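Lab meeting, item 3. Inverse folding demo.
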């Protein structure tokens, strides 16, 4: 499976899911389970690469702001939600996490307190492989390295947040009045 095929499957899963990340994940499992086992393994490989590419401190800071906190697992689940938004949104958020402030659902969350996580999106290849083969997805022999996160900054420091993520800070550090 190529990277374009990976994102194409997610786009197919998004169609008819009503923008709901959990529905995207369920549809992705169903669509992927119809493929050959090798393609499911390829999807898992691309998912690892996508998650590694998005394992960035600045994106973690954005997730922390948007969700009112983000543990290790919370950041993983946030990136699952982000994957369910499709390639353009995902790529833009990785390149510029502050761009998430432009998403209508993120803007609405500044008032509603909605959190964005989708653990199910991370399980898509395992669930699809199990559904297709009644077996467990083979372990990847070459794990994708993740970047060093030594440049953490204080996500609770309003000045630092405003400097690094000004548009998100305007929404979440000092939320707008209703």
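The presenter then showed the designed sequence:
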């Amino acid at each position: 499976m190529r990277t374009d095929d990976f994102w194409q499957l997610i786009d197919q899963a998004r169609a008819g899911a009503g923008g709901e990340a959990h529905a995207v994940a369920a549809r992705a499992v169903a669509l992927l389970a119809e493929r050959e086992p090798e393609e499911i393994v390829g999807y898992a490989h691309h998912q690892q690469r996508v998650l590694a590419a998005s394992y960035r401190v600045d994106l973690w800071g954005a997730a922390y702001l948007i969700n009112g906190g983000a543990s290790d697992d919370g950041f993983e689940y946030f990136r699952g939600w982000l994957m369910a938004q499709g390639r353009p949104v995902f790529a833009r958020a990785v390149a510029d996490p502050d761009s998430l402030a432009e998403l209508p659902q993120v803007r609405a969350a500044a008032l509603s307190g909605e959190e964005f996580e989708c653990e199910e999106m991370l399980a898509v290849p395992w669930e699809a492989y199990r559904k297709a083969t009644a077996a467990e997805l083979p372990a990847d022999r070459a794990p994708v390295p993740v970047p060093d996160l030594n440049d953490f900054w204080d996500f609770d420091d309003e000045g630092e947040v405003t400097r690094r993520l000004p548009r998100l800070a305007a929404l979440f550090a000092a939320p707008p009045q209703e």
